Amino acid sequence: MKKKVVIIGGVAGGASTAARLRRLDENVEIKIFERGKYISYANCGLPYYVGNVIKERDSLLVQTTQGMKKRFNIDIYTLHEVLKIDRANKSLLIKNLKTNEIFQENYDILVLSSGAEPIKPPIKGIDYAENVFILRDIPDADKIKNFVETKNPKKAVVIGGGFIGIEIADSLLARGMNVTIVEKADQILVQLDKEMANILHKNIKDKGVDLILADSIEEFKNNGKTLVLSSGKQIYSDLTILSIGVKPESNLAKEAGLDIGITGGVKVNEYLQTSDESIYAIGDVIEVKDFITGLPTLKPLAGPANKQGRIVANNICGKNEKYLGTIGTSVVKVFDMTAASIGNNEKILKKSSISYETIHITPPSHATYYPGATTIFMKLIFDKNNGKIYGAQAVGYDGVDKRIDVLSTAIMGGMTVMDLQYLELAYAPPFSSAKDPVNMLGYVATNVINGDLEIIHCDEFINLKKDNVVILDVCEPIEREKGYIDGSINIPLNDLRNRLDELPKDKMIYVYCQQGLRSYIAYRILKQNGFKVKSIDGGYRFYLNYI
Ligand code: FAD
User: Fold this and answer.
1) Ligand 1 mean position to 500 CA, how many Å?
2) 178-182 and 210-212 as β-strands: parallel, antiparallel, unpaired?
3) Which is the closest atom of ligand 1 to the Cα of 252?
């Protein structure tokens, strides 16, 4: 008898499992049951399809049912919903959504890749709103596109400033609509810390988008044309996209009595087996182990889902491969900027009571003497005792994803911030600097760990009582014309050695420049001359993101 593997969900994780399984074993029977109309499509491309950046609908279909059947000999049943898992009899109750027929299907091994569903709270008036959409699959994208093309909406409101919300806002703006984003938190993109998100807030507003933070939708009125926010504010909308997050689609697993983790995701072991060893689970539906802290977390991302699918296929074929955990490497286009991050941010570490140190730098994307260099705002979060990397965030116009990918690789390889100093990264003037921004993060963090540089973080500095301190700006006077920290005195770095007698030895000196490099040099001069001194982390450029 052939071994029979049944897969629930035929998109990222499910399709990946099926294809790898067939490559490894020509004899296994493979069946996929997918509730939707399509399998293996690029849901990550949907916002760009709505925005007409991706013009051909067919290019979203990575693999069709017929194509997959022909190439991999897999039985695929679209528009089939699995209603129940009967673990005792190793069988499924399935509904054919085209005919409403309900039937049973047995399995030897079951793979659950049912993904995550958009959160749809019972907001007052939502059932009567005719212009409110969510975006999860191709039919959702079709509905939005069709609405845009037939109703010609002028004013769009996106509720939720996460990845999908931002991408769709970008797309609707590109289609000429007047766009408002409403976000409940006081920042967009929760994977970033606030000062990093603030860089994006400014850019989004500069693009003409109305960004409403710390407010949320309370009620839809006038069939969805009027949105009432918690603050009492009312906004008009021709088209509203509800994009307030996702949660694991874990009901089937729950009802089957499989263990569910504290995050609401299905619990799996390191081989991605659920509490029933005949059932594997992958993708957005599972709770994963944070690769860095080992704590349980949810990371609904395409990369992990695809890789887990491959590992499960390997394990079904007896390879005993472990899933090591998820780092949460992510990147998103925010209009003309890019925001990328890995690992844990300050908010998560504080919640987990993990102590950490942070540094901020603003290196150029490539050598400044070669045209077109732009600033990358970077943040590194690490353990001050041993240099372990907890997370990193970067925001800028160019070279952002590359630096975050290098840092992700470093984390996976168990490197510390000290190791970042020695990474040999590709360099020519159009691409980087001889000391790449990742090396620079390593230098600054190592200086902080070694005590070669003492820093004060901008938020701490802002809240500091400043009656008995000196704030020293070592920029050139011409730079101060563009702004400076209130109460600071100016001694340009090149004059500092000759003007030390103007500074007191009994007061703490907080030194800064634009980016943190000149203030580091000033710190070294002052420290070696017996002054009490700290450098303001990230310099004036970052300071502006805190105020
Ligand atoms: P999915 O790919 O969602 O597949 C789950 C499938 O299971 C669904 O098709 C569903 O219909 C089916 N299903 C559920 N229950 C049943 C049932 N009972 N019976 C039968 N079938 C069922 N991630 C990134 O890393 N980068 C991005 O840029 C990115 N952009 C995204 C943009 C959008 C608009 C969306 C929606 C997601 C995006 N993601 C992105 C997330 C990424 O798509 C998911 O992490 C990934 O698809 C998860 O794979 P999965 O197999 O767990 O679930």
Assistant:
1) 62
2) parallel
3) 18
Measured from the Cβ of residue 277, the count of other Cβ atoms closer than 10 Å reads 10
The pLDDT profile of the chain, 547 residues, written as one tens digit per residue, is 789 999 999 999 999 999 999 999 999 999 999 999 999 889 999 999 999 999 999 999 888 888 889 999 999 999 999 999 999 999 999 999 999 999 999 999 999 999 999 998 889 999 999 999 999 999 999 999 999 999 999 999 999 999 999 999 999 999 999 999 999 999 999 999 999 999 999 999 999 999 999 999 999 999 999 999 999 999 999 999 999 999 999 999 999 999 999 999 999 999 999 999 999 999 999 999 999 999 999 999 999 999 999 999 999 999 999 999 999 999 999 999 999 999 999 999 999 999 999 999 999 999 999 999 999 999 999 999 999 999 999 999 999 999 999 999 999 999 999 999 999 999 999 999 999 999 999 999 999 999 999 999 999 999 999 889 999 999 999 999 999 999 999 999 999 999 999 999 999 999 999 999 999 999 999 999 999 999 999 999 999 999 8
Helix (H, G, I), strand (E, B) or coil at 186: coil
Q: Strand 239-242 relative to strand 109-112: parallel, antiparallel, unpaired?
A: unpaired
Secondary structure (3-state) at 536: strand
Dihedral angle, C-alpha 190, 192, 197, 203, nearest 10 °: -100
Q: Which atom of ligand 1 is nearest to the CA of 33?
A: 20
Report how far residue 439's alpha carbon sits from residue 441's, in angstroms, rounded to the nearest whole number: 5
* Å from CA of 278 to ligand 1 middle: 23
- Cα of 12 from ligand 1 centre, angstroms: 6
- Residue 44 annotated in active site: yes
Ligand 1, atom 1, residue with closest C-alpha: 115
CA 59 to ligand 1 centroid distance, Å: 17
Ligand 1: residues with CB < 6 A are 8-9, 11-14, 33-36, 43-44, 46-47, 81-82, 113-115, 135-136, 163-164, 249, 252, 283-285, 300-303, 305
DSSP, res 512: E
What is the number of residues in the chain? 547
Name the pTM for this structure. 0.95
Given the residues 44, 317, 475, 513, select the one marked as catalytic.
Answer: 44
Selection from 356, 298, 353, 345 nearest residue 326 by Cα: 298
To test the ligand 1 pocket, which listed residue (17, 20, 44) has its Cβ within 8 A of the most ligand atoms?
A: 44
